[in-house]
């Protein structure tokens, strides 16, 4: 819907110069998986090409091939009309191909200047690093992109995420890269920071750089990209000029069928209040948080990344300490000092960082599911595998988990199925309140719909749900009420009827409506 | 409490698809396991040794052989759990030295055997708890903490004893390290077997053991799933200290004397046992059976070479080569083995 | 600038070393005179050099437990060479020591790089292998002073501008490490792979090869120290420097090198070694039994780790405006 608005806003006339980078027939297999089956890709100078595809479509494999981390099994790559082999990360770098990842490419303990120049630092005539020149050139590059406020000597760990991003972009500029790959660059940025990034991309375009932009978000793609290329299941299924191409066409290419993002219809029936929070505070992260959650309700929490939503949720879950306030669960005061205590009381948390906080990747599915319920499945502390299998089967089948067996390692599942394991784990504890933090982040559209449908099912059965989400359609489509947080405080609570995309965004950003 | 749970079983039965428990056959995977490799090594050493020396297969020499690994093996059992949880304790040999020194002091003061045993075990437990507090309460890396406490504990033994030695232990104290429970079965060996069974049950058959594996695989996800990570790690440090305390009673009793340099270098042998036994140094996997087999292998190698009059220091080469090769060979096999056409 | 000085670990460590010297010399004024201080530096030279080699390895998130065994083996090689062929000149012996040390480092590095075995396992293995190999080489015999040539023993004791050659070697090593770690791309890549190995790969750094290089450097230093140790204590045996790897790691830890990799400086490590050196030299002066040394360095390690952990604690993102102002 908002994509429609963006189309008319950004639709520059695109001429067709010779492509800067051409991939043809690129294939790559891993044991058991064919990640890429003969894909092609053309990138043009002075243009932004959006690479679109569901998770597992082969986008990240392609990035790794372009940056010389992986070697393709077949196919050709040419840069500026010449066939090349990207045999190593260093070779890709020499050919002027650089990638900006979310947070992974930077070095916290090293200075800004060194982060920009590591690998291609200026040397003096003895072949030694020339720190003075490095600093001067860092200052010059940062100035060129209107980031002169950054001191080249600052250690990177003292910078915020947005500034770290600027450093990553400065790095791309510093090597005078001709091809810049941006892999979900906006994932951790606020709306204002995203705007600044767009300006930078425009600057790069004006300098004739070739840009590959990878994103899940259609509004971003329509806002900044000139062309698109769609991948599905390791194949290139469509490409073209973005202007005039409707979103539905691209979505159809992505999933192979027409899908409108439909949220489950439901008629909320609110029951008695389950959870009541008053004046909850933390010394540095949030202050005076108060709300009530009813049986059968989905309470949405919206805000910019870094508004303190996850911190509040983790306080309810006992993993972040609080400095004041009360939590009351079914009329009883609760002061969870650990996740174990929260779970015992009936509050569970599906974390945003699934791989780190959600699943134990190298353990089988059934052990992941039974972990918080071991007290019930065991007999006086002794494991009973049969009970564990039964428990795991009951809940994973209910979620329609796709796996070979319950003994398959959770880490081998797709993102969507991993999320199902995490949710099954919590349902098995028979919770009263379930908190979902960005429940559909980074999972494919099919699993997304399954998770949404399941949430609707849960509340219909009387569970109380809190959902933290940064996706406006999800927040509006799923929540009965929406709490908006900004800078650690609750700004406003919307009912379903009051809620509009504009009002949510404006409240979250602190713009007076 | 909620409708969710009661509704769950019905929905299950309505679905046609059923997820199998496992796909692979346990028997088949057991045959290809690390433990099987270790069993083969044990058998091979047995065969070689019994050809090499006629004395080897005598029950009494086999009984003597067990003294080569029981003390270290006892600690390795607990160390295995600690390493699986993602931590390590380099101070175990120093704990043995401090325990032995304090027992020696107490013996000089005329304290009887039960008191001495209590002091040895108590010292171990206290030292383990000290390590545990530093690692879990202050959040410090265990490898550095225990390098520090290793110097501290043995340093205390040196401060107390200097270049002296304690030798006046009561006569009945000798039983633990020199006595036999029945026929050729020494107290040390019986204790090791019992401890191995207890640790096997603890690690592989209880909730506690499952949580230890979980912590080693992903400590944050474990914490977020309600596992009390710090508490379990603390218990593991105490347990390791406790076993080191028991080992200090045994070695003191066996040798009948205490010098501050007692059990020097044992920590590395204990860790070697655990790693050789298939415990991943990165945490998350390992088995007690493997550790017991590794302990036996190290005892056999030491003893077998001893029968051949090969000095102890050379045996350490064999242990070192064994340690690296049992880890390197499977890697090389995976890399080059199957593709080669013979 | 001055504010950031107080945030530097090295500043506080230097202060601790000076305070220690001041305390001792308050009662024994002779302790602080330049001659004695130079003596302490000379006594600590081997520890300093070994700690620098170790630091390079720890920076890459690895550890080298085999340094003392490497030193022992290399020392035995040069001692036996000298005993059997006294005509071989000292410079040639130094080259041999460097070469043997390097080969042993290459072995460690090979397993870590090519087979991806955790360094603690590899060097735990080679720790026993190298020391065992020393026994095999020597047949368990010692090489003592009367079998060593006068040049062999005298080399490191010769005075150059009033300072013994051993101290010059240590100074030169410190300088080389400083230049290497701050002024060369290879030196910086050691930090890079310690801070963020994934990012390092994207920057075009070969993580395995860089670790390999670190083990080679550690091996080279151990080899050099093998000769210097033997000629200093004029005895080569299987027992030489037994357990010394832990002192070396202790010097690094006290010097602020993070065991998690990526953090550590030449100055800090040198100060860490000097801290232990000053204590070792002070104990006999203040009439404390040398048996106290071990417990004191143990306590120092624990204290250093506690303080380092405080310094490294991440200042998380602060959301509330008013808290930010605090």
UniProtKB/TrEMBL annotation, chain A:
SMART domains listed in its UniProt record: AAA
Domain ABC transporter: from-to ranges: 21-258, 270-512
Coiled-coil spans in chain: none
Taxonomy, superkingdom: Bacteria
Gene3D superfamilies: P-loop containing nucleotide triphosphate hydrolases
InterPro entries for the chain: AAA+_ATPase (IPR003593), ABC_carbohydrate_import_ATPase (IPR050107), ABC_transporter-like_ATP-bd (IPR003439), ABC_transporter-like_CS (IPR017871), P-loop_NTPase (IPR027417)
Keywords for the protein's UniProt record, in alphabetical order: ATP-binding, Cell membrane, Membrane, Nucleotide-binding, Repeat, Sugar transport, Translocase, Transport
GO molecular function, one term: ATP binding
Keyword field contains Ligase: no
Protein family per UniProt: Belongs to the ABC transporter superfamily.
PANTHER family: CARBOHYDRATE TRANSPORT ATP-BINDING PROTEIN MG119-RELATED (PTHR43790), D-ALLOSE IMPORT ATP-BINDING PROTEIN ALSA-RELATED (PTHR43790:SF3)
Protein name per Swiss-Prot or TrEMBL: Sugar ABC transporter ATP-binding protein
Species of provenance: Mesorhizobium liriopis
UniProtKB/TrEMBL annotation, chain B:
Membrane topology: Multi-pass membrane protein
Keywords attached to this entry: Cell inner membrane, Cell membrane, Membrane, Transmembrane, Transmembrane helix, Transport
Subcellular location: Cell membrane
Coiled-coil spans in chain: none
Transmembrane segments annotated in the record for this chain: 31-53, 73-99, 111-134, 140-161, 181-203, 234-252, 273-301, 313-333
Source organism, top-level taxon: Bacteria
CDD domains in the cross-refs: TM_PBP1_transp_AraH_like (cd06579)
Residues annotated as signal peptide: none
Alphabetical list of InterPro entries matching this protein: ABC_transp_permease
Pfam families membership: BPD_transp_2 (PF02653)
PANTHER family: ABC TRANSPORTER PERMEASE PROTEIN YPHD-RELATED-RELATED, AUTOINDUCER 2 IMPORT SYSTEM PERMEASE PROTEIN LSRD
Oligomer status and interactors: The complex is composed of two ATP-binding proteins (LsrA), two transmembrane proteins (LsrC and LsrD) and a solute-binding protein (LsrB).
Protein task: Part of the ABC transporter complex LsrABCD involved in autoinducer 2 (AI-2) import. Probably responsible for the translocation of the substrate across the membrane.
Identification of the protein by name: Autoinducer 2 import system permease protein LsrD
From TrEMBL, chain C:
Protein's cellular compartments: Cell membrane
Transmembrane segment boundaries: 56-81, 93-113, 119-138, 159-181, 212-234, 246-279, 291-309
Main location group: membrane
InterPro entries associated with the record: ABC_transp_permease (IPR001851)
Sorted UniProt keywords: Cell inner membrane, Cell membrane, Membrane, Transmembrane, Transmembrane helix, Transport
Record note on quaternary structure: The complex is composed of two ATP-binding proteins (LsrA), two transmembrane proteins (LsrC and LsrD) and a solute-binding protein (LsrB).
Protein name, as recorded: Autoinducer 2 import system permease protein LsrC
Organism: Mesorhizobium liriopis
């Amino acid at each position: 819907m908002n994509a429609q608005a963006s189309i008319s806003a950004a639709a520059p006339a695109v001429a067709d110069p010779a492509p800067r980078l051409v991939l043809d027939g690129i294939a790559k297999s891993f044991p058991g998986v064919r990640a890429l089956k003969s894909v092609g890709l053309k990138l043009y100078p002075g243009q932004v090409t959006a690479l679109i595809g569901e998770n597992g479509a082969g986008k990240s494999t392609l990035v790794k091939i372009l940056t010389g981390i992986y070697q393709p099994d077949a196919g050709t790559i040419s840069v500026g009309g010449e066939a090349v082999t990207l045999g190593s990360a260093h070779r890709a770098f020499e050919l002027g191909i650089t990638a900006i990842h979310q947070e992974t490419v930077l070095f916290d303990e090293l200075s800004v200047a060194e982060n920009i120049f590591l690998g291609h630092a200026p040397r003096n005539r003895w072949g030694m690093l020339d720190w003075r020149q490095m600093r001067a050139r860092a200052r010059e590059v940062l100035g060129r992109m209107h980031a002169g406020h950054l001191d080249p000597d600052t250690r990177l760990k003292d910078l915020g995420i947005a500034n770290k991003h600027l450093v990553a972009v400065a790095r791309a500029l510093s090597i005078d890269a001709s091809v810049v790959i941006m892999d979900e660059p906006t994932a951790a940025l606020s709306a204002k920071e995203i705007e600044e990034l767009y300006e930078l991309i425009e600057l790069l375009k004006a300098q004739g750089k070739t840009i590959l932009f990878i994103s899940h978000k259609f509004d971003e793609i329509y806002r900044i990209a000139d062309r698109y290329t769609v991948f599905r299941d390791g194949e290139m299924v469509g490409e073209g000029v973005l202007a005039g191409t409707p979103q539905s066409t691209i979505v159809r290419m992505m999933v192979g069928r027409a899908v409108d993002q439909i949220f489950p219809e439901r008629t909320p029936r609110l029951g008695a209040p389950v959870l009541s929070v008053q004046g909850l505070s933390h010394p540095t992260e949030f202050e005076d948080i108060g709300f009530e959650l009813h049986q059968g309700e989905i309470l949405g929490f919206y805000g910019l990344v870094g508004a303190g939503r996850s911190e509040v949720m983790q306080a309810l879950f006992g993993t972040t300490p609080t400095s004041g306030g009360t939590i009351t669960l079914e009329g009883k005061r609760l002061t969870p000092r650990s996740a174990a205590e929260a779970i015992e009381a009936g509050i569970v948390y599906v974390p945003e960082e699934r791989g780190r906080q959600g699943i134990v990747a190298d353990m089988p599915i059934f052990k992941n599911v039974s972990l918080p319920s071991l007290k019930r499945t065991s007999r006086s502390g002794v494991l009973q595998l049969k009970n564990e299998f039964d428990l795991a089967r009951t809940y994973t089948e209910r979620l329609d988990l796709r796996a070979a067996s319950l003994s398959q390692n959770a880490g081998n599942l797709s993102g969507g199925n991993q999320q199902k394991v995490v949710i099954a784990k919590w349902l098995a504890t028979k919770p009263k309140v379930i908190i979902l933090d960005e429940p559909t982040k980074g999972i494919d559209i099919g699993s997304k719909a399954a998770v949404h449908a399941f949430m609707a099912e849960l509340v219909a059965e009387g569970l109380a749900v809190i959902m933290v989400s940064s996706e406006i359609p999800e927040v509006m489509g799923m929540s009965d009420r929406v709490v908006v947080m900004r800078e650690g405080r609750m700004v406003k609570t919307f009912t379903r009827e009051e809620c509009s995309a504009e009002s949510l965004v404006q409240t979250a950003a602190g713009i007076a409506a | 409490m909620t409708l969710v749970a009661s509704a769950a079983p019905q929905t299950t039965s309505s679905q046609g698809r059923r997820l199998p428990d496992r796909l692979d056959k346990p028997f088949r995977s057991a045959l290809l396991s690390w433990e099987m490799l270790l069993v083969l090594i044990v058998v091979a050493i047995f065969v070689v040794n019994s050809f090499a020396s006629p004395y080897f297969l005598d029950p009494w020499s086999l009984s003597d052989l067990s003294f080569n690994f029981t003390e270290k093996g006892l600690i390795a059992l607990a160390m295995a759990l600690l390493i699986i949880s993602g931590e390590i304790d380099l101070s175990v040999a120093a704990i043995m030295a401090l325990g032995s020194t304090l027992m020696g002091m107490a013996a000089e003061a005329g304290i009887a055997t039960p008191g001495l045993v209590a002091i040895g075990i108590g010292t171990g437990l206290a030292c383990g708890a000290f390590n545990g507090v530093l690692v879990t309460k202050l959040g410090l890396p265990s490898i550095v903490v225990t390098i520090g406490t290793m110097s501290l504990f043995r340093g205390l033994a040196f401060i107390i004893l200097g270049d002296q030695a304690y030798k006046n232990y009561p006569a009945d104290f000798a039983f633990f390290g020199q006595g036999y429970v029945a026929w050729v079965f020494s107290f040390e060996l019986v204790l090791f077997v019992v401890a191995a069974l207890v640790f096997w049950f603890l690690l592989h058959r209880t909730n506690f053991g499952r949580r230890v594996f979980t912590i080693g695989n992903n400590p944050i996800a474990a914490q977020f799933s309600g596992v009390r990570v710090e508490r379990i790690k603390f218990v593991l440090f105490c347990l390791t200290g406790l076993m080191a305390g028991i080992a200090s009673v045994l070695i003191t009793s066996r040798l009948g004397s205490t010098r501050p340099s007692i059990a020097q270098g044992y920590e590395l042998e204990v860790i070697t046992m655990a790693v050789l036994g298939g415990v991943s140094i990165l945490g998350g996997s390992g088995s007690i059976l493997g550790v017991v087999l590794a302990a036996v292998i190290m005892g056999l190698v030491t003893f077998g070479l001893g029968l051949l009059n090969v000095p102890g220091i050379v045996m350490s080469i064999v242990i070192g080569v064994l340690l690296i090769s049992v880890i390197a060979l499977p890697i090389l096999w995976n890399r080059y083995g199957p593709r080669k056409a013979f | 600038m001055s504010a950031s000085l107080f945030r530097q670990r090295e500043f506080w460590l230097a202060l601790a070393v000076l305070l220690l010297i001041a305390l001792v010399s308050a009662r024994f004024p002779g302790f602080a005179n330049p001659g004695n201080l130079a003596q302490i530096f000379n006594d600590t030279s081997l520890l300093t050099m070994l700690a620098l080699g170790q630091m390079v390895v720890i920076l890459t998130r690895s550890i080298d437990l085999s340094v003392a065994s490497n030193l022992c083996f290399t020392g035995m090689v040069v001692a036996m060479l000298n005993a059997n062929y006294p005509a071989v000149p000292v410079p040639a012996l130094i080259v041999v020591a460097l070469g043997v040390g390097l080969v042993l480092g290459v072995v460690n590095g090979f397993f870590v790089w090519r087979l991806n075995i955790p360094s603690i396992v590899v060097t735990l293995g080679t720790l026993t292998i190298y020391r065992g190999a020393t026994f095999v080489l020597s047949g368990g015999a010692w090489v003592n002073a009367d079998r060593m040539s006068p040049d062999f023993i005298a080399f490191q004791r010769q005075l150059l501008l009033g300072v013994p050659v051993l101290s010059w070697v240590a100074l030169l090593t410190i300088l080389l490490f400083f230049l290497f770690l701050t002024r060369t791309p290879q030196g910086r890549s050691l930090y890079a792979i310690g801070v963020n190995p994934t990012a390092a790969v994207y920057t075009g750094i070969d993580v395995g090869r860089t670790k390999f290089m670190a083990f080679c450097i550690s091996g080279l230093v151990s080899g050099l120290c093998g000769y210097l140790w033997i000629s200093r204590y004029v005895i080569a045996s299987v027992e030489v420097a037994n357990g010394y790897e832990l002192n070396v790691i202790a010097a690094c830890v006290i010097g602020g090198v993070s065991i998690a990799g990526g953090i550590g400086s030449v100055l800090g490590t040198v100060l860490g070694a000097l801290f232990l050196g000053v204590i070792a030299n002070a104990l006999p002066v203040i009439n404390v039994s040398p048996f106290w040394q071990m417990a004191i360095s143990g306590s120092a390690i624990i204290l250093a780790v506690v303080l380092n952990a405080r310094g490294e604690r991440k200042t998380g993102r602060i959301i509330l405006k008013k808290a930010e102002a605090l």
